[in-house]
Design goal:
21% strand; single chain; alpha/beta; 32 strands; nine-stranded mixed β-sheet
């Protein structure tokens, strides 16, 4: 490697010798090819380019000394414009430094690119921040170059011409040629209820701009003027230093525990007329860097414990308040509620309230400022309307909806937004009970449901629901006895009812569905079909993959929390079927909620816990008897802990309250849709059955219970119950 006095560098790379002098133009860059550098000699043709380069470098040394003088002069000119170059800055290259206009924004990035030509007598710069874009140029000799921010005529410093350079100067009332406000301007503010004393304290003055007397709002920090905003007659504005983003009245909030933020200098003055000096006005909202002051003067806002947002009442003002609250913290913010100016118009800002309501009216607005709403944090006053509606029972379901069985209603009623866990040993009738409950809720209240029943085929589930709805068997099989199966017309009507009442959540792939997937589709069902109930049957048919570091108890807790949030948010009642774990030495007694497989959270987190149990011992009672054990009720207004009994009537494919099948209770259920004419027919049927009982005309394979009091609003003059038992062969009268 060969070096010249300062900068000659010889590089060997793949047989190519490269000589470079940084102080001479690029044409001094020369190349020589050879097999190896060691083979080069003075007589070789390959060394001649190096000789030429050395000669150029010797001449360039003198060139560099003269260039350094010009470069130093140019750097001094740039420093006068607050452009401070790094020590390693050289000619003929771009250098990054801090822009004196935008100061690199909140990140303080070096966004100003400065290029100095090879002679060192000309510099050009450009700020690449989108919010700034300041660019210009300057020369030490020759014709000045225009800048994008030309302030005026060129100046001369040490014989060097400077043009197009926007430099900062110390702002004072003298060099800005500011004067006390005239009577004309004072009267203008007096018409807006702002006194001359308030103008003087806030540094409101006047100036001559473009041969016009304008209002000058001086922006001060520690008493020193750092910017001045001029207001022309037609609400046109101009700033002395548009890149200095500071709020108006900053010194007034130093050390303040409560700060009021308004939108406009006149609103700030209006707040002072109401007795509030701890107020600032935001910078002009046209600039994207408006919120930079929140960071630059962060210490002012950190020490405040309460910030009142009193921006304008229009949509931009509301958006401004939202963004300020988001950045500062909603927990510290309150927002004003502007009073009505007319029936359909609000006061727009603080000065408008001062004009029409006076200082006391403006003070009341500030005192009545509401805490900024925080998602998830509320006070009881936010729910007073809902509490009143609950007290007056406006919705009609405050005490829960009837299950359709009077005995069960005393223990359990369906409340929207709750979670009911249903359990029981296999083949106890859990799914059958829920299906019958859904049919009753639809008949009585018009509820719609979403079914996520992975154990049932769609056609089998449809058959069960249709039989409970039409009260006729789907097939002429043994469980239908001698009753005729439903007709084709009844089937078609039933299919329409199914389609209008239920929607299905089915997972047709081989993989099991997750609870998140089920809840996602349930939300869609609320939006599309307006469902009021969701059935998930059963728990063990879902995909329960969980992280390796999460226990099943923790997983069940999170899963039930997700289900409850859905129920409460969408006002849906959710029935979740969960099987019990394997019972040791089981003797036929009903399981408890703590016997559910998985976790005790099934009983801890549910609103209602129900065990469905069917008798399997002939000596203990009828085999068709279904026991409904309500083991948990969170809402004591909608139920209580206890037991109820239902009987399944395979003849009509329905469940009835009581231990025996009551035919006339079926008639009582049908009276919801029958008119008075049907009641008279039913009364004749009842008398006919009574006669059959007395004449011993009932077959020995059947039994009936006649309970005429079970007919609501019945006009029958009978209040007796006759029992006929094929087992004992005796007649009982009560």
């Amino acid at each position: 490697m060969v070096l010249c006095g300062r900068c000659l560098v010889l590089q060997m790379q793949r047989g190519m010798a490269r000589v470079q002098c940084v102080n001479v133009p690029s044409r001094a860059l020369m190349f020589a090819r050879g097999a190896a550098y060691k083979k080069m000699n003075a007589t070789s043709t390959y060394i001649k380019p190096f000789t030429t380069a050395l000669t150029s470098c010797t001449q360039g040394s003198e060139h560099g000394r003269n260039g350094d003088t010009r470069l130093a002069s140019l750097q001094k000119m740039l420093e006068m414009s607050n452009i401070i170059l790094e020590p390693y800055a050289r000619r003929n290259q771009n250098v990054r430094c801090l822009c004196p206009q935008c100061e690199g924004g909140s990140t303080k990035e070096k966004s100003l690119s400065v290029f100095i030509n090879a002679e060192g007598n000309h510099a050009m710069w450009n700020c690449f921040r989108a919010n700034c874009g300041w660019k210009g140029s300057t020369k030490t000799t020759g014709t000045p170059v225009r800048s994008s921010h030309l302030l005026g005529t060129a100046d001369t410093v040490n014989g060097a011409s400077i043009s197009g350079v926007k430099y900062r100067k110390k702002l004072t009332e003298d060099n800005l040629q500011l004067k006390e406000v005239s009577m004309e301007i004072s009267d203008y503010f007096a018409a807006r209820c702002i006194s001359r004393e308030t103008l003087h304290r806030n540094g409101v003055m006047q100036a001559i701009r473009k041969n016009e007397t304008v209002i000058a709002f001086t922006y001060r920090v520690k008493g020193q003027i750092v910017d001045c905003k001029y207001r022309y007659g037609l609400k046109q504005f101009e700033q002395e230093n548009p890149y200095k983003v500071i709020p108006y009245g900053l010194d007034d909030i130093e050390g303040a525990k409560e700060i009021i933020i308004v939108e406009g200098e006149i609103d700030k003055l209006s707040m002072e007329e109401a007795g509030y000096k701890n107020c600032i006005s935001v910078p002009p909202i046209e600039k994207d860097s408006i919120f930079q002051y929140l960071y630059n003067f962060k210490e002012y806002f950190d020490q405040a414990i309460h910030i009142i947002l009193a921006t304008d009442a229009d949509e931009p003002g509301k958006a401004l308040a939202e963004e300020i609250a988001r950045r500062i913290g909603r927990e510290k913010c309150s927002r004003v509620v502007w009073p009505k100016l007319t029936e359909d118009k609000l006061c727009m800002d603080a000065n408008e309230v001062l004009l029409y309501a006076g200082s006391q009216g403006l003070k009341k607005v500030i005192c009545d400022a509401e805490h900024y709403p925080i998602r998830g944090l509320y006070s009881f006053s936010d729910y007073f309307d809902e509490i009143d509606a609950y007290y007056q029972c406006r919705l009609g379901n405050e005490l829960g909806l009837s299950t359709g069985w009077a005995g069960v209603d005393e223990l359990y009623r369906v409340v929207p937004g709750e979670l009911t866990i249903v359990t029981g040993v296999p083949n106890s009738g859990k799914s059958e009970w829920i299906d019958a409950l859904m049919c009753n809720l639809n008949h009585l209240n018009g509820w719609k449901f979403s079914l996520c029943s992975m154990e049932n085929k769609v056609r089998e589930h449809a058959r069960k629901l249709l039989e409970k709805h039409i009260k006729k068997p789907f097939f002429p099989t043994r469980y239908g006895d001698s009753l005729r199966r439903m007709s084709v017309d009844e089937l078609e009507q039933g299919k329409m009812w199914l389609n209008e009442t239920f929607c299905l959540i089915r997972y047709e792939d081989e993989a099991l569905p997750s609870i998140q997937w089920v809840i996602k589709l349930a939300k869609a069902a609320v939006l599309r079909y307006g469902i009021q109930g969701l059935v998930i049957d059963p728990y063990n048919e879902l995909d329960h993959q969980r992280p390796s570091n999460q226990t099943e108890t923790e997983y069940v807790s999170q899963m039930l929390t997700l289900v409850k949030r859905f129920a409460q948010h969408y006002g849906c009642h959710v029935w979740f079927v969960a099987h019990p774990k394997q019972l040791q030495n089981w003797n036929g007694e009903p399981p408890g909620l703590y016997d559910i497989s998985g976790s005790a959270h099934f009983i801890n987190k549910c609103d209602n816990g129900i065990v469905i149990h069917r008798n399997r011992d002939e000596n203990a009672g009828p085999l068709d008897q279904v026991q409904v054990l309500v083991r948990k009720v969170r809402n004591k207004m909608a139920g209580q802990i206890g037991e109820a009994y239902l009987s399944y009537n395979s003849f009509f494919c329905v469940l009835y309250a009581g231990s025996l099948v009551n035919i006339l209770m079926l008639c009582g259920e049908l009276q919801i849709i029958l008119d008075d004419i049907i009641y008279s027919i039913l009364s004749q049927i009842s008398i006919f059955i009574i006669q059959l009982v007395y004449m011993d005309s009932i077959p020995s394979t059947s039994f009936f219970l006649l309970n005429l009091t079970a007919l609501p609003n019945s006009s029958l003059p009978l209040n007796i119950a006759f029992y006929y038992s094929a087992i004992s062969g005796t007649k009982l009268k009560a």
